[in-house]
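Deliverable D5.2: sample structural annotation.
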Amino acid sequence: MNKEFLEAFFNLKRDIEPLKKNAKNPFFKKKYADLNAILTLLNPELEKYKFIFFQTVQISELYVNKVSIISNSSRAENKTEKSNQPLYKLLTTLIHIPTEEKIENIYPILVSSIDSQSFGSAITYARRYALQNLFSLTASDDDGEMTTNHNPVTYPKNISKENLIGKLLNIQNIDELEKIWIENKKGFLNFSKKDQDEITEVKNTLKNDLQKI
């Protein structure tokens, strides 16, 4: 990368003040920094060092592997099929205007439904964490508190395939993925082999995407 860009980015991160927690999550009773607080903190420093950023939603197809046993044979057949649930991603692009150098950051937007309220909340969540990750900001992990909270959220042992996949698609980090997987293990074992394979492929696909963040 251009030396001028690296120096500007270094100075930008150095001059960013600590992030103040200005909002409260009523469910976990924890304070956190909302999107407005993050933007208020970043914008003056971005302008000072001539940076600009964009955040756009991208839609891609989610493919899952399905394993089936071929009739009259012990041989298994592995097929890749397109899921009915698309995969949404937030692309954050930071550009240094003088050098035109840029950094890109991709964060998954994981939702079980695309009604306006749920989807808007998921986008806001993704925007916050993408910016915190890009600029190494520290703040309370409001939605992610369930991974460390002393009163963790519990889920029913008996759950439908659709509900379990919906919960997986709402996950925002690896720890939460593993937590929900363990808590719903008993219900998972009650599914048919076909349903287990489909759920496992969704889990593995999401895990791979989260590990790239």
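Annotation notes: Confidence is low (pLDDT under 50) at residues 140-157. The chain has seven helices and seven strands.
The annotation will be released with the project's public dataset once the embargo ends.
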